[in-house]
Amino acid sequence: MFQSLLLALLLDRLLGEPRRAHPLIGFGRLAHWLEARLYRDSRGRGVLAVLLAVAPPVLLAGLCSRAGWPGWVAGIVILYLSLGLRSLGEHALPVARALEAGDLSAARAAVARMVSRDAALLDETQVAAAATESVLENGNDAVFGALFWFAVAGPAGAVLYRLANTLDAMWGYRNARYEYFGWAAARLDDVLNYVPARLTALSYALAGRCRLALDCWRRQAPAWDSPNAGPVMAAGAGALGVRLGGAAPYEGQWHERPPLGAGEVPGPLQIRQALRLVQRAVLLWLAAVLLLQWSLTHA
């Protein structure tokens, strides 16, 4: 297990996400195709769409994992394709560099590729906050969630998690179109993220300012609208000693969000620190898996 995780992370470090023909691009097209043919304003149609989208790739990944050493290699490749650790830096560092250069327009353009809020309305502090929040939240979505489900259920688990996360990003909106059709995608993502999100929050605490992170997690996470993003972002902000949350613009309107963390006002330094926090947490996970594997083999 440790070897598989390490090799997949090394592939991500060396290669990053495929520039062309990423499987998730093809999956996104499949999801659009299914939506065009199955959409009704009903939960039942949403459940059917999720099953048709997710079940075949998950079953195929499960079969691959049973094919001896080729299956082991395929499992490493599947986990690599499910990860986005290097991608976090490729998206966040341009924001930090633009802010350091005093180029707010470039920073806004870069952060718009990371978040769904109206970047053109953000000032320097809000741009830095948006990028930092995205790094912390996607540390769970693009790294730790996939690692957790690979460890629990092998390649099939990693595929299930990543596809559910993708469908949630496409269909899991609380609006008129997706309130019912997107219900299944949103709930599946919530269920699959429940344990990884809390392990991610704990990892951030252990890799940063532990006491402050745990205190922010306890006090601030319940007020956040997402049951899983709340612990991750509150603990991450506390671990960094930075103030996040607060008002953010979406579709031309400012929405007030609960505060996250405590301490400094966010800037480009905090974006870089958030990336380093995720990287330290990855090392903690590898150490924990290695220790667990060693203890099981020597029991």
From TrEMBL:
Pathway annotation from the record: Cofactor biosynthesis; adenosylcobalamin biosynthesis
Topology with respect to the bilayer: Multi-pass membrane protein
Alphabetized UniProt keyword annotations: Cell membrane, Cobalamin biosynthesis, Membrane, Transmembrane, Transmembrane helix
Transmembrane regions: 46-64, 142-164, 277-296
InterPro entries (alphabetical): Cobalamin_biosynth_CobD/CbiB (IPR004485)
Cellular location(s): Cell membrane
Keyword Transferase annotated: no
Function: Converts cobyric acid to cobinamide by the addition of aminopropanol on the F carboxylic group.
Annotated protein name in UniProt: Cobalamin biosynthesis protein CobD
Source lineage: Bacteria, Pseudomonadati, Pseudomonadota, Gammaproteobacteria, Lysobacterales
